[in-house]
Amino acid sequence: MVSVVAAGGVQLLVCGTGEVCVADWRAHALVAGSGREWERLLGWFWAAVANLSGEERARLLQFTTGCSQLPPGGFQELSPRFQITAAPTFGALPTAHTCFNQLCLPDYENYEQMVRALLWAINEGGEGFGMI
Question: For a FRET experiment, which of 26, 82, 101, 121 has its CA 20 to 30 Å from that of 71?
Answer without folding.
Answer: 121
